[in-house]
Amino acid sequence: MATARQLDQSTTSLYEQDFFIQGQRRELVRLIKQSPSLKAFIPEVLNELWQDAREDAEIETGMPIQTFPKSCSWDTDEQILNKTWWPE
Q1: How far apart are CA 12 and CA 19, in angstroms?
Q2: Labelling 72: which of 30, 44, 51, 88 has CA 20 to 30 A away?
């Protein structure tokens, strides 16, 4: 059952989240173009960020951290940095 906090997502809020994600993707692509060697660090950094996001999701939703996947299953090139890809 969804909590009141989970149900309090407006269309504007979702638009803002999409806009933010697109901006972050563009910035990552620029940084990798400037310094291609940074790409090798993506898996390590992604894992650290994923764990932070799990903790944030637990706090924001009130759901146990075990609810959220322990690791990111998305491919860096085909999904994460692809501006047209969105998880289902």
Answers
A1: 10
A2: 30
Alpha-carbon distance of 16 to 11, in angstroms, equals 9
The closest alpha carbon to 87, from 71, 66, 73, belongs to 73
Longest dimension (CA), the chain: 46
pLDDT digit string (tens) for 26-41? 999 999 999 999 999 9
Please give the Cα distance from 77 to 43 (Å, whole number): 11
**Which tokens hold the place of 68?**
């959220």
Structure tokens at 1: 């059952």
Q: DSSP code of 70?
A: S
The predicted pLDDT at position 18 comes to 86
Instruction: Name the phi and psi angles at 74, rounded to 5.
Output: -85, 140
Question: If we measure between CA atoms, which residue out of 37, 35, 31, 25 comes closest to residue 77?
Answer: 25
